[in-house]
Structures are given as C-alpha cells and as structure tokens.
Design brief:
- This protein has 339 residues and is of the alpha/beta class.
- 40% of the residues lie in helices and 12% in strands.
- The protein is built from 14 helices and nine strands.
- The chain has helices spanning 16-22, 57-69, 71-74, 121-137, 152-163, 172-184, 186-191, 199-210, 220-225, 227-238, 278-283, 288-293, 307-316, 318-327; strands at 4-8, 30-34, 37-40, 43-46, 79-83, 142-149, 215-219, 263-265, 302-304.
- The chain has a five-stranded parallel sheet, with helices on both faces. Strands 3-4 form a two-stranded antiparallel sheet. The protein has a two-stranded antiparallel sheet with strand order 8-9.
- β3 and β4 form a beta hairpin.
- α2 packs across α4 (121-137) and α8 crosses α14 (318-327).
Length: 339
C-alpha cells in the first residue's frame, strides 16, 4: 500500500489549532504540514490560497508544488498531512450596513459588504478532485479529506467575535443585521459565507468528487463531549497504528472566547477604526440615526445569540443538518441541537 495524502481543511472555528498542536503534529510516522507556504512566481503564498483560483492552477503549478512539499514523504512511502483552516475558508469581514459610508476599512473591503475570498462547496470539491489527481501523479496512492462542522449559531457568533477588531461599529445591532444579511440576501449567503454553513451540500459535493470513503466530517461538539471517540474516528479513518498515536493528547481545548454559551466578547478595534466616539454624539444630543448616516457608530463589548436569532439561524439549516446527520453513522447531531 502506497502513501496517502490527507487534507485537513478545518474550516475556521472548528478546533483546528487545537487538533494541529495536540494531535496531528504529534502523530509518529506521518509528516504534518500546518498552513504551509509555497513559492509561486517568486512569491511566497499559503498553499490554501490556491483554492480561490481556477482549478486549472493544479495542472499549471500545483503538481510541482506538491512535489516540493512532499519530497521526503512519497519516496519513503510516508503519509503526509496538510492542515489549514483556509482551504474551505470562513466568513468575510462585514461592513456596517450604512450605505452612505463606503470608504475602505481594510484592503479586502470595498463597498457595502466584502466577498468571502474562498470557494463555494462546489468549487471546493473541484479543487479536491484536482489535488487528488495531482497527488496520484507524483506517487500518492490515497487521498483523503478531514473536516469538522460546528453548530451554525455558535459558528456565526464566534466568527463575528473573531473578526470584530476589523468591524467598524461592532455591536449587537450590527451583528443581528449581518446575520440576516448572510441568511436572507443572495449576496450575503453566497458572498459572505452563509452557504458554507450548508454542511450537507459541502459533504455531498466532496463525496461526489473524491468518493465517500475518502471524506470524514465530524462535529466539533463531539470533540468537546467525548474526545476519545472523536480521535478514535480520526485514527481509524487515517489508518494510524496504535504505536504511532500520541500517548497523551492535551487536555480539553481552551476556548479563545470563554464567556457564556451564548455571549461572545468582542475584540478591541484596530487602530483608527472607531476614531470618533459615539458617546460624544450622544452628549451633544445628536440623533442616533444621524450619527449612523454619517458613519459614526457605537461599539459594544459583547454580542449575544438571542433565542430569536438562534432559531432563525438553525431553522435556515435545519433540513441540511438532518440530511448530513444521516450520513454521520457514529454521531447524533440532534444531541447537540443541530435540529
């Protein structure tokens, strides 16, 4: 049996860093590359950035890139793990929804909302197939994908909190407006990352391209509730001998944003992002509507996933969650509130 290339694709906010540091990098007999960079036309870029380009890039430069990063694995019959949450990507930095204020806040933001800069599930699956083909051409016999999912309401809130340092006027109102936008607007749903929370479509697109036996998707809630079961699923899927498994995996993962289950602390704003204090406008007796129209925004320290917002989010993905639940034979997603 020849070597296998494993692609751990995250996505963001699904314990990717924890799994990299506590497990993947400690597996013996397997080389693990975490967020590797590669050279393209003299420039150093993250490998996962190739997934936002045309799938033809794997024919043009992808094979040579894979050859270079797997040089000491294929020849020795050694498996290779490439892990990065960027392969499938996450959400985009949301702009305030005030239409009169369109000045750029970051290099990525232009206009009312920015685009996701990462592939849809169908485009992602095409890249998977291209990587599978390229890997076989350089000597890998197997190609498998590992991915994790997280309950959508928690993932959305966690993603917003993480991006909040780049959000002008990050607040509860803005968070709820952003949620409605990515759920209800085609631009938000397909451009900002809402479609990536359709886990069944992600799973189905992937298995159609590389085969059901080569795709493993598990909920991060399983990792939190039964770490041994989660890791045993990975060990079995990766066909790792017991002698190569770390004797002890780190303690339960630490949350970047502990808070309570439905309250998320926001990050301090990037320098200059909220330079005009909203409270000054209040002291001057200026209407909040006028302040918003001028792009002068309030900023809060936390957001909460209210029951109404939670229901709205989970209803959007209810049928998708039910469908993927039927494909995850060892896990009951209803146990974690997916439906």
């Amino acid at each position: 049996m020849g070597p296998t290339l494993y692609l751990h694709v995250g996505p963001p906010k699904t314990a990717t860093t924890y799994l990299q540091e506590s497990f993947l990098e400690k597996v013996k007999g397997v080389k693990c590359l975490v967020r590797p960079k590669v050279k393209i036309s003299g420039r150093s870029v993250y490998l996962h950035r190739l997934f936002v380009h045309s799938v033809n890039i794997w024919k043009e430069v992808g094979i040579d890139i894979l050859k270079n990063i797997s040089r000491d694995t294929v020849d020795k019959g050694k498996d290779l793990i490439i892990s990065s949450e960027g392969f499938y990507g996450g959400f985009s930095v949301p702009r305030p929804w005030y239409k009169r204020r369109t000045k750029k806040l970051t290099d990525r933001v232009n206009g009312l909302w920015s685009t996701s800069g990462s592939p849809y599930s169908s485009a992602f699956a095409k890249h998977l197939k291209a990587v599978q083909t390229a890997s076989k051409s350089i000597g890998f016999e197997g190609f498998k994908m590992l991915g994790n999912i997280r309950r959508q309401d928690q993932k959305i809130a966690s993603g917003y909190a993480e991006m909040s340092s780049s959000i002008k006027g990050a607040s509860q109102d803005h968070f709820e407006e952003w949620v409605r936008f990515i759920l209800e607007s085609p631009i938000g749903y397909y451009g900002l990352g809402g479609s990536k929370l359709d886990y069944y479509r992600w799973w189905l697109s992937s298995v159609k391209k590389i085969g059901k036996e080569n795709v493993l998707i598990l909920p991060v809630e399983l990792l939190d509730s039964d770490k041994d079961k989660f890791l045993n699923e990975w060990i079995s899927f990766m066909n790792i001998g017991k002698q190569n498994v770390p004797e002890k995996v780190s303690e339960d993962r630490k949350r970047v944003n502990p808070g309570t289950r439905n309250v998320w602390n926001l990050r301090p704003p990037a320098r200059g992002l909220d330079s005009i204090p909203y409270r000054l406008m209040q002291k001057l007796g200026i209407s909040s509507n006028i302040a918003k129209a001028l792009g002068i925004t309030s900023r809060e320290k936390s957001i909460e996933v209210s029951k109404s917002i939670q229901n709205k989010i989970m209803y959007k993905y209810k049928e998708s969650n039910k469908k993927i639940d039927k494909q995850l034979e060892s896990v009951d997603l209803s146990k974690y509130g997916y439906f």
